[in-house]
Amino acid sequence: MKILTASQMQQVDRLTTEQFGVLGLTLMETAGSSATIAIINQFSTLKYVQIFCGKGNNGGDGAVIARHLWLKGIKVDLFLIGKLEETKGDAYINFAAIKNLAAVETTSLTYQEIESLSDLYKTLQKPCDLYVDALFGTGASRPLAGIYQELVELLNRSTTPIVAIDIPSGLNADSSQIIGTTIKAALTTTMTAPKLANVLPPAMHYNGNLVVIPIGSPDSLVNSCGSQLNLVEQKDIIKFLAISRRNSNYFKNNVGHVLVVAGGQGKIGAAGLTSQAVLRAGAGLVTLASPKSCQQALSSNIGLEIMTESLSENTKGLISNDALKTILDLANNKSLIAIGPGLGTSEDSAKLMLELIKNRPCPLVIDADGLNSLSPWPIGLEATEEKPIIITPHPGEMARLLGVKTSDVNHNRLDLVRKLATDYKLIVVLKGERSLIAAPNGEVYINTTGNAGMATAGSGDVLTGIIAGLLAQAPNEALLATITGVYLHGLAGDLAVNLVGQRSLIASDLTNHLAQAIIQVGGEIEKRNISNSLS
Predict the structure, then answer these.
(1) Does the pTM of the predicted model rise above 0.90?
(2) How far is CA 358 from CA 279, 341, 420, 426, in A?
(3) What pLDDT band is residue 531 in, cutting at 50, 70 and 90?
(4) Range in 83-97, 250-264, 314-328, 520-534 the model is least confident about
(5) Domain at 261, CATH number
(6) How far is CA 260 from CA 51, 198, 231, 368, in A?
(7) I need a labelling partner for 78 at 20 to 30 A (CA). Which of 90, 172, 483, 523 fits?
(8) Could you tell me if residue 344 is left (phi over 0), alpha (psi between -120 and 50 degrees) or otherwise beta?
(9) How many CA atoms within 13 Å lie on the side-chain side of 116?
(10) Cα separation of 286 and 269, whole Å?
(11) Within-domain flag for 534
(12) Same domain, residue pair 296 and 255
């Protein structure tokens, strides 16, 4: 699903009218009537609703909602902040209709023009079931001031739930940051496609439940408006799982063999978590290559299904640069290499990583100390479509790769993840709340699964394994495998939280719930009736 800027949304609305003859008045009617359905679905026992409208099209949507709620037998008070003659176009038509209806239906529908907040005090003291925020839509870019700021502060202080139309008033549609006083909505109904403020933190936390409402613009217009932002949907995940579905005549080599290069003294757990996740994601085989001194501990702590190889090490018990030839030899018949968890950082690891990338015989998935050993990312070191490189930094690692502060990454995630991906032709997963996946062509995908319980040791190691395991099954689908891996990793976390809660969640819980996550999104063949198949 595309994510649109305010200007792209205006373009889509305009072209819907110009190219397809769908009038603006029709778009507004569809927006308001569909929003009404979403409101009724979440708040089913409404008897009295107050709607606060600005003078623009967002307010016009509010007027349509007022009419449709009233038609359903709900008492409605509509407040226009300003005067009717200050409105225009489609909004004017809908405000005028409410004013005329209210002149007749005086007990069930009221219309009032508000010039100062004092006009609202008595109204706001009356208990109602719901407030509707139709003050500002996607056109607002400055902090609220004056009567609008005071009104929003009053509404937020109430215990009455608020529904926001398009985006909560006070947010800038094109920014994930909070710019001032903002409506705290329980539900937001956004038109045609989500906006950045609907889907990225911290702004998204003011939206409540988000419902995306189609109002009549063809998908072809939305997809061709120039947006490079995408919201990951379950259908994207189903697509990859269908591509990588096993045939009945498959054997283990048909579904990939991953070489995991990981672990070191004191960090063998990272190597085990990654390797176990590779298999649970569906790869047929995994070989774990770790320092020689770690082999005994690994053999008694990792799964029986995992094969191991020993590598030369330095005096600190970490993989040495001398291990490069062994790693390349091991990789010759492998689907890909996953490297980094527990690797440690040293001159040896820096040389190893640089030479491995230059001489890689297959795709790479790099995480943790594999990334730290490359920081900052070497200029001129680029991936290729034939041998893609997937990196999975958290904000601190991302900052080191770019040579900036972690705070810079946290405040400019979107631009920085895109820059790193396009500059070096990488697939970059910037982990965190609403993880971002950036492609070499500049497209960015926003993940929607996961929770705060996943902020725990080893969670990233599991993600590395999941992505590697999925890519091994469909080596030509690096981007889609990465998007799927991030989504399933988060979904496994969401399923685990239902059982253990956020505080107690540990990384192995993610691996343990991965199968359930895959089944939940339809990643398994339906069970066959054995008796019928034998008859």
Answers:
(1) yes
(2) 27, 20, 18, 14
(3) very low
(4) 520-534
(5) 3.40.1190.20
(6) 58, 38, 30, 13
(7) 172
(8) left
(9) 1
(10) 16
(11) no
(12) yes
The answer to whether residue 525 sits within a structural domain is no
Residue 175 three-state SS? coil
Q: Is residue 56 part of a domain?
A: yes
CA atoms in the 13 A half-sphere facing the CB of 468: 40
The domain that contains 127 carries what CATH number? 3.40.50.10260
Three-state secondary structure along 305-341?
A: CCEEEEECECCCCCECHHHHHHHHHHHCCCCEEEECC
Rounded distance between C-alpha atoms, residue 66 and residue 57, angstroms: 14
Give the pLDDT band (50/70/90) at residue 237: very high
Distance CA 369, CA 104 (A): 72
First to last CA, the chain: 45
487-524 in b/e form (b: 16+ CB < 10 A) is bbbbbbbbbbbeeeeeeebbbbbbbbbbbebbebbebe
Report how many domains make up the chain: 2
pLDDT of residue 32: 98
Q: What are phi and psi of 239, to 5 degrees?
A: -60, -45
Rounded to an integer, the average pLDDT of 23-28 is 98
Helix%, strand%, coil% for the chain, nearest 5: 45, 15, 40
Do 198 and 238 belong to one domain? no
Tokens of 125: 């003291």
Which amino acid, one-letter code, is at 84? L
Q: Tell me if the bond preceding 202 is cis, omega within 30° of 0.
A: yes
Domain range enclosing 144: 6-226
Tens digits of per-residue pLDDT, 450-509?
Answer: 999 999 999 999 999 999 999 999 999 999 999 999 999 999 999 999 999 999 999 999
508 inside domain: yes
Bridging pattern class, strands 209-213 and 187-191:
parallel
114, 138: one domain: yes
| Rounded alpha-carbon distances, angstroms, from residue 474 to 164, 193, 479 | 42, 30, 11
Residues 6+ apart with CB under 8 A from 415: none
Distance CA 278, CA 286 (A): 7
